[in-house]
Amino acid sequence: MKKLVFLTGAGMSVESGFKTFRGNDGLWENYPVEQVASHDGWLRDPTLVTNFYNGLRKKLYAAQPNEGHRLVAELEKDFDVTVITQNVDNLHEKAGSTKVIHLHGELTKVCSSNNPDDPRYQIELPEDNCEVVPGTKAGDGSLLRPFIVFFGEGVPMIQPAAEETMKADVFVIIGTSLNVYPAAGLVQYTRADTPIYLIDPAEVSYSNPRIQVIQKGASEGMRELVKVLRQG
After folding, report:
1. Cα 77 to Cα 30, 71, 119, 137, 171, distances in angstroms
2. Could you give the CA distance from residue 46 to residue 210 in angstroms, rounded to a whole number?
3. pTM above 0.90?
4. pLDDT per residue as tens digits for the range 119-145
5. At what angle do helices 218-231 and 67-74 cross, to 10 degrees?
6. Helices (H), ranges, the chain
7. Which one is catalytic: 69, 92, 102, 104?
8. Which among 27, 39, 168, 231 is placed 20 to 30 Å from 191, CA to CA?
């Protein structure tokens, strides 16, 4: 079974009406990114940050996967599919994808602020109880914080993502500009004979001659890619 690896960014979730992380204007839901998605911002005002993610979580739970998400998930019937996403939403999982690597964390979870990557203190918040009261403590006594990789923090899942990318028979990039590192560096881990497809409605600058561009949005682009893969 052929292995498909997807790398998805903010453009994947646009049609679902959910904004993620990096707008060109440096704002996220009208807040300066440093205020709500940096370690300094968290230390300065954990209550503001906690309430920001409470509101964002409610928006996420109201959002639905779009056709692009669903088409990625459906490919699991015929291919071994891994999704590597820069998005903090759970729309790939909602659509049915079973192997998803989150590079920048998961909005549906909270964690210890002393050690965000300690699984013992990570909690998945259900839709009907998705708000964290500011000041709530994790199991280790530190404040519960969003399970988000803040700007300036390391990206612990980049290594598993690189290992999956090395195994890809086809590598597909959707809705990311290839300017956001370390995720953009994943292309370098593809094998020399692996075809690469880039789905994005904007013009994206790149230097790799193997990249085949489908200049369309996520859903329309995925419809075209599915045809190509079925022919192959």
Report:
1. 40, 11, 31, 42, 17
2. 45
3. yes
4. 999 999 999 999 999 999 999 999 999
5. 20
6. 33-36, 39-44, 46-62, 67-74, 91-95, 158-166, 218-231
7. 104
8. 231
